[in-house]
């Protein structure tokens, strides 16, 4: 009897969990990713603000799956899928499948604003987070030898666009870097001139969070001296200044864009039905309606929850969908019907800075120190690899005690 071949495209939160859950299944797995590591994206902004090293939040896939005998890892980018002939195209070769899992995630959505895409910074992958870190640190170095006050103020003005959790976390961490660390590194630079400005088009921050936590977030950011501009749209950025929707300009060389994501571009060429943000419509069992041998999970999949809202692009959704997909593949092989996916909402969590976070867990809202402690330990627990957990813990403890972000390196790109 032939062993069914399961091909998984993408080793993010969704794909990784499909692969792990099929560890003892009677299948042969090929896991494909264009990167040779699994990336813990929720901590990418910490790389951008010089808080953590890339290697502390990424883990090599060959190490993760070293002991999984039914899995082969292939490094490469999938460029096409033939659903009728059942193969994927990668690096000029074809890989046949019996079951396919598409878990390719998402990329930054600039909503067609080319000037922002070209001149702005983002925190969606390691390279972009490191570029952001290098740029931020260079701004302080340049400001240090800039005699002209107006030019210096522009160098020290940092605009973050998007008041969602990533924007809030980035703005808070950046303000903390300036107020607690850079003031020590640049004693002869007046960092009272520095500004962190958070732009949000809506009339509130962190939309999915309850009212009381939106307020708490606002207050905690203000405590860190972040200037929050609500109901404010970004119109343009030319590398020298940001132009707002009402025509106002802010002189700055730094714009960090966190205001949108869309599903990975390879999905656009598959000829499947796509919904908002390019996500692929799937059945409640996470299969493609016309191709039940193909599953789509995580940020790439579009599925409504019980209230008719699309499931959020969150790691918790991707992880749970990965696990259910593995079970469904196993059920189909055993001659059973696949089961529908129901998302178990585990709550919301975002940090603003030292001793400052907001959390919604078990229907209760927390803010401040308790939420921050929950955030710290949950993120350490969720990292892959004992070594990374220890390193991140030591790093954060060091920062906490000594007010020092240790990764203040400007590296060549
Ligand atoms: C800065 C940031 C902060 C976040 N914070 C949080 C948070 O606090 N909490 C939370 O729950 N979620 C958070 N998220 C969202 C979370 O990271 C995503 O929802 C989650 O990663 C989605 O998992 P996924 O498996 O669908 O995709 P991903 O984890 O993005 O993995 C997709 C994988 O597919 C690979 N891939 C893509 N295209 C191809 C191709 N053509 N060929 C081969 N490989 C390919 C990629 O290399 C990648 O490894 C954050 C995201 C970002 C960017």
Fraction of residues in H or I helices? 25-40%
Mean pLDDT: 96
Shape: elongated
Q: How would you sum up the major sheet?
A: 6 strands, mixed
Small-molecule binders: flavin-adenine dinucleotide
Number of strands: 25
Order of adjacent strands in the largest pleated sheet:
5-2-1-9-21-20
User: What structural class do you assign from the helix and strand content?
Assistant: alpha/beta
> Please, what is the oligomeric state?
single chain
- Uncertain runs are none
| N/C terminus separation | 51 Å
The fraction of residues assigned to DSSP E strands is 15-25%
Radius of gyration from the CA trace? 22 Å
The number of helical segments is: 12
Describe the structure.
With 413 residues, the chain is of the alpha/beta class. Helices cover 33% and strands 25% of the residues. It contains twelve helices and 25 strands. Strands 5-2-1-9-21-20 form a six-stranded mixed beta sheet, with helices on one face. Helix 1 packs parallel to helix 10. The longest helix is centred in the middle third of the chain and has 21 residues, at 165-185. The N and C termini lie far apart (51 Å). Bound molecules: flavin-adenine dinucleotide (FAD).
Structure at a glance:
This protein is an alpha/beta fold. It has helices at 13-21, 44-48, 54-57, 61-64, 114-119, 126-144, 149-155, 165-185, 211-223, 315-333, 369-382, 386-402; strands at residues 5-9, 28-33, 37-39, 58-60, 71-75, 78-82, 87-90, 93-96, 99-102, 106-108, 157-161, 195-199, 226-229, 234-237, 241-244, 249-251, 254-257, 261-263, 280-281, 287-288, 291-296, 301-302, 348-353, 356-361, 364-368.
